[in-house]
C-alpha cells in the first residue's frame, strides 16, 4: 500500500508529478478556453467580484499566500489572505461582491468551516478548493475546484499542497479569462508552463538522494531558518512547518527582507539557513536575496541555497546548493517546496520519529 516506501508521506511526495498532472486534466475546452467543472458561479457573478479573501489553515494557508500573488498579478483584483481561525473574530468587511475562497485539503477543518459559514451570513460567495469529494466545506460552498491528489494519508500535507497551488493558478487564470484582463492573452502560455510542471517536479525527485545526504549532515541540528521572497516566502514558511511537524525542531520561515528588522539577531555560527532563491529572470528580487544570503553568511550561518539551474551568481555564498528547474517565479513554489518536503521527511526518519503520525497532530482538525 505504500508502494515500497517506508512512509505514506514519502510515497505521496513521489506521487506529486501525477497528482499535479491529474489536477490539470480536462480543464480546457477544445477551443483552448479554461473550463472549471464545479465553478457554478456565473461569469457575471465573477465579473462583479471586487475583492477576494482567502481563508485557510496551516499548509493550505501558505497555498493561499501564493494564490494572492497569482490572482493579483493576473486579474488586478485585490486579495487578502487570512488564517481561518482569526477570520470571523475581527468583524471582516464582506458583501455580495467579495469572493471568499476556502482552501482545505480535507474539507473538514473546523476553523475554515466556521469562517465560510460566517462569510455566507454576510452574503459573500464562497468557493472551496478541496481534495475530498463530498466533504463538508465544499458541500456548504457555492462553488468548488476539486484537486485530484488522491487520498492523502500522511498527516503532513505534500501532494495536497502542490495540487492546491495548481487549483489556485487555475482560479486566477479563470478569473482573468472571465474578467478579460490584459493578462487574458497569457492564459495559454501559462497553461503550457503548468503542463510542463510534472516533468520538472520529477527531475527534482530524481535528485532525492542528494537531499537525503544533506539531511544526514543535519541530524544534530536543533534550529533551522528558512528565507524566501515573493512566492518563495510561503515556500520558506512551508519548509519550516514541515520541519516542526515531523522533526520536532525549531524552524522559522522569514521574508528575507525582514531579516534586518530583527531575526538576523538569531544567526550564529553554524546555524543552517535554507534560502529559496527567486529565478534569475527576476533579477532585482534575486539580487536582494543574494545580499540577504551574504548577510547571514557573514555572521557564520551555513547557507543551503535552492537555486535555479544555470544561476551561478549564488555559488560563492552557498555552503550547499540544491538545483531547481528553470520555471517562472509565480510557479516556482511547485518545484521549490519538494526538496524541503524530502528534507523534513528524511531528517525525521533519521531521528527515529513516526513521519506519518507525528506527535500531537491529527490529519484533520475538526475542533476550533
Ligand atoms: O485539511 P486542511 O487543508 O484544511 O488542513 C489544514 C491544516 O490543518 C493542514 O494543512 C496542516 O497544517 C498540515 N498538517 C500541514 O502539513
From TrEMBL:
Q: Where in the cell is it found?
A: Cytoplasm
Keyword Transferase: yes or no?
yes
List, alphabetically, the GO terms of the cellular component aspect. cytosol
Q: For the SIS domain, which residue ranges apply? A: 42-181, 214-358
Catalytic center residues = 363
Reaction(s) catalysed by this chain, per the record, are: D-fructose 6-phosphate + L-glutamine = D-glucosamine 6-phosphate + L-glutamate
Name of the molecule in the record: Glutamine--fructose-6-phosphate aminotransferase [isomerizing]
Species in which this protein is naturally found? Nocardioides agri
**Which lineage?**
Bacteria, Bacillati, Actinomycetota, Actinomycetes, Propionibacteriales
Amino acid at each position: 500500500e505504500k508502494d515500497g516506501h517506508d512512509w505514506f508521506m514519502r510515497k505521496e511526495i513521489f506521487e506529486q508529478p501525477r497528482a499535479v498532472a491529474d489536477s490539470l486534466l480536462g480543464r480546457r475546452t477544445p477551443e483552448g478556453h479554461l473550463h472549471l467543472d464545479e465553478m457554478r458561479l456565473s461569469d457575471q457573478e465573477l465579473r462583479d467580484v471586487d475583492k477576494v479573501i482567502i481563508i485557510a489553515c496551516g499548509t493550505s494557508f501558505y497555498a493561499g499566500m501564493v494564490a494572492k500573488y497569482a490572482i493579483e498579478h493576473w486579474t488586478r483584483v485585490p486579495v487578502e489572505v487570512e488564517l481561518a481561525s482569526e477570520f470571523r473574530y475581527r468583524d471582516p468587511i464582506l458583501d455580495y461582491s467579495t469572493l471568499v475562497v476556502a482552501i482545505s485539503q480535507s474539507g473538514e477543518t473546523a476553523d475554515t468551516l466556521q469562517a465560510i459559514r460566517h462569510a455566507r451570513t454576510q452574503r459573500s460567495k464562497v468557493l472551496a478548493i478541496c481534495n475530498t469529494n463530498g466533504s463538508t466545506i465544499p458541500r456548504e460552498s457555492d462553488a468548488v475546484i476539486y484537486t485530484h491528489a488522491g487520498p492523502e494519508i500522511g498527516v503532513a500535507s505534500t501532494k495536497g499542497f502542490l495540487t492546491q497551488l495548481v487549483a489556485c493558478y487555475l482560479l486566477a487564470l479563470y478569473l482573468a479569462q472571465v474578467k478579460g484582463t490584459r493578462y487574458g492573452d497569457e492564459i495559454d502560455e501559462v497553461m503550457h508552463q503548468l503542463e510542463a510542471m510534472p516533468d520538472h517536479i520529477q527531475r527534482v525527485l530524481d535528485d532525492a538522494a542528494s537531499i537525503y545526504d544533506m539531511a544526514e549532515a543535519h541530524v544534530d541540528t536543533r534550529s533551522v531558518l528558512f528565507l524566501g521572497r515573493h512566492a518563495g516566502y510561503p515556500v520558506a514558511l512551508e519548509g519550516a512547518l514541515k520541519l516542526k511537524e515531523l522533526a520536532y525542531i525549531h524552524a522559522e520561515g522569514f521574508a528575507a527582507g525582514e531579516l534586518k528588522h530583527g531575526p538576523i539577531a538569531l544567526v550564529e555560527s553554524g546555524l543552517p539557513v535554507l534560502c529559496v532563491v527567486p529565478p534569475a529572470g527576476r533579477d532585482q528580487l534575486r539580487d536582494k536575496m543574494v545580499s540577504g544570503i551574504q548577510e547571514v553568511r557573514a555572521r557564520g550561518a551555513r547557507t543551503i541555497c535552492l537555486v535555479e539551474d544555470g544561476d551561478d551568481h549564488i555559488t560563492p555564498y552557498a555552503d550547499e546548493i540544491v538545483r531547481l528547474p528553470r520555471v517562472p517565479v509565480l510557479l516556482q513554489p511547485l518545484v521549490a517546496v519538494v526538496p524541503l518536503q524530502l528534507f523534513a521527511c528524511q531528517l525525521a526518519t533519521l531521528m527515529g520519529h513516526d513521519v506519518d503520525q507525528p506527535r500531537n497532530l491529527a490529519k484533520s482538525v475538526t475542533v476550533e
